Amino acid sequence: MPGPTPGPLRGPAPASAPAPTGPAGTPRTPGTPRTPGASRRRVAVVGVALSDCGRVDGPTPYALHAQAARRALADSGLDRSVIDGFASAGLGVLAPVEVAEYLGLRPTWVDSTSVGGSTWEVMAAHAADAVAAGHANAVLLVYGSTARADIKARRRTANLSFGARGPLQFEVPYGHTLIAKYAMAARRHMHAYGTTLEQLASVAVQARANAATNPDAMFRDPLTVDDVLASEMIADPFTKLHCCIRSDGGCAVLLAAEDYVPDTAKAPVWVLGAGASASHTTMSEWEDFTVSPAAVSGRLAFERAGLTPADVDLAEIYDAFTYMTLVTLEDLGFCAKGEGGAFVEKGRLLRGGELPVNTDGGGLSACHPGMRGLFLLVEAVRQLRGEAGAGQVLKAGGRLPEVALASGTGGWFCSSGTLLLGRS
What we know:
Blueprint lengths: L42 E8 L10 H16 L8 E3 L9 H7 L5 E3 L7 H15 L4 E8 L1 H6 L25 H16 L3 H15 L13 H6 L2 E3 L2 E2 L9 E9 L11 E10 L15 H12 L8 E4 L4 H10 L8 H5 L17 H4 L7 H13 L17 E8 L4 E8 L2
Helix pairs in contact: 6-9
């Protein structure tokens, strides 16, 4: 793939840039509030894109942000002047102001929420609310990271924990690493419900099978359950192949008010409902290691969308570790608590399975440059549009999926954000 074009998104907006109209048809420029008492607008995802992903040694994280933003804007067919909202996290001292400046944007609505891997689902929910209420018209969410390249070049080291201040100071001195927290939770589920290592390994095997049809996936060679179990032990019970990969990459998502949809290049994907939840930072405050905050965010999202798990055609779930996929499926209501092990077996998560999950290969095989949650939204939108190529999910009769779910998890199950997206 060609490298990113240097430099930010600069230059004056053309005079012909489209402006949405108010309830009475009066022009309304970006940043102008809606008439008090006006009904809430529908909100659509109108543009999505990836930057170069995988092994990206040259560009800076800022360049990946810019590349993803340009591509998402081109995907939408809209002019950059429509963007009056911006959300970003994970880069810069004053995110998102620093990244917006690099991109040449001057937003009148910003969000820098940072709650780990669920950041982007929570941000998307905030953006959708802002657009629906008329506080913004088009919000760009963008992320980019060179986590892999930085370690290879020794610009940074791998993180063992998120820090040693505040409540975390009572855990870090005892060597309680980030991965150890996930491993403890997985062991508890195995003890309480009889979940097996083979069942957990099957999550990685199916993610790799889905990645095989994704030309952008970092790893595409087939895996077996035995391969997963025999790989290097990292934190019992997780071997290396139970854990997400480390990659470089970025992506962007543009949400806009329904006013803009007639001018977009592609059919809209509508935000149907969203929910968020925060749980804990210290393990001692986590009441039940077998229940994640997705149990709350998922319930809220389904209630607000007026849907149930049975209405979902595919799910994009944060998968830093195999256990995350399994327990999140339980907590979202796709199977009962304790039945996740049985549910993930026998190919249910494959592209042609009962519930296709992480259809691009997920963080276990496709890419994981850090806070992966925004990648979930990109893949969900592409699937609903029918743009996934050989990895496209199809319903009976060759029909495109109607409803997709994206659920991000932050920290060690500290937070969760869930979005439901649909074609109508």
